[in-house]
Amino acid sequence: MKDRIAITLDAGLLTLVDSKVGAQLQNRSQAIEHFLRLGLFGHAKLAGLIMVSAEHQERVLAFAGSGPSGSKKAKKGNKRATTSVQRDEHAGNADAQPLISRQTRALADAGCQRIIIVTQDGPQLKRLIDTIAKNNAQVVTRDVKGTAQVIAAAGEAGIDSPFFALGGDISFSCSLAAMMEYHLRHGKVATMG
Question: What is the pTM for the complete model shown?
Answer without folding.
Answer: 0.62
